[in-house]
Design brief:
The protein has 151 residues and is mainly α. Helix content is 70%, strand content 0%. The protein has 7 helices and no strands. The longest helix has 19 residues. The model has no long low-confidence stretch (mean pLDDT 93).
């Protein structure tokens, strides 16, 4: 694919989402999301989608790694095509909170949940789930289950 980087990015991201919807093999889905990120590494959407997809498939360590990277990407001020603000406002952080808990990184999960609840971008219908996740993470931390995480 050639053309404007943002257009190429959108094409890759759309192809990846379609491959996922068509239940294509895992390597094909991943091989479609990764080029979107490679074209526009300043965009969190492909890594966030990979985190969500890996989480849904029970691939917790991969979900955690993709979510951690996606959550570190700030909103792309210079991009204009198909920017999905919810990935930058909350979704990447939410994926990180869930996957961190599943890989035993309870302190990280707790911190993410606190940020989500304090950030003002969490939809009302998601607050209860995040609050329950926060309570669970806190219980693990208080029980000494905390693992140190590189921030």
């Amino acid at each position: 694919m050639k053309g404007w980087d943002e257009e190429v990015f959108c094409a890759h991201l759309t192809a990846a989402r379609l491959a996922e919807q068509l239940e294509r093999p895992a390597d094909e889905v991943m091989d479609r999301y990764l080029p979107a990120y490679e074209v526009r590494p300043a965009r969190a959407e492909p890594l966030g989608e990979l985190a969500r997809w890996c989480r849904a498939g029970g691939r917790w360590p991969l979900a955690h790694n993709f979510a951690r990277q996606a959550s570190r990407i700030p909103s792309p001020g210079g991009d204009h095509l198909s920017v999905e603000p919810d990935w930058y406002d909350r979704r990447a952080l939410d994926e990180l909170a869930v996957s961190a808990a599943w890989v035993g990184e309870f302190e990280e999960a707790k911190n993410c949940c606190e940020r989500l609840l304090d950030g003002g971008n969490l939809p009302a219908d998601q607050r209860r789930r995040v609050t329950e996740n926060l309570e669970s993470a806190r219980a693990h931390v208080e029980a000494g289950s905390r693992r140190l995480v590189d921030a």
